Predict the structure of Putative pre-16S rRNA nuclease.
Amino acid sequence: MGRILAIDYGSKRTGLAVTDPLRIIATALETVRSFELIDFLKRYTANETVDVFVVGMPRTLENTDTNNTPHVKGFIKQLKKAFPDTPVYEHDERFTSSMALQTMISMGSKKSDRRNKGNIDKVSATIILQSFIESQR
């Protein structure tokens, strides 16, 4: 069984998280500059089996598109083109950034670590992935 890889896509940088091969635990993987993301994923999938991509879909509280939604949808098209045999699921990412910050605070992360938006992006991707895993059970 391959891993599930979650993507918290942003216009500048993207947080990534993966499951273990048994799909039990979600772990932060990396933060990548968004323009390098497809190349990073190609390198990663050359070494690790990824069966599913989960992309966080930005929505407002009213469940409408945000300013970033069209960018994410454009990225999903690129992802499907680059990995035509790998299913891509969209998953609601509302509140993940604030949840990530609260998680980092409760874990005792230093203030400097919490200011690093790349760390928040990785934790956000992990929250998206954990939520997706739970929704599949």
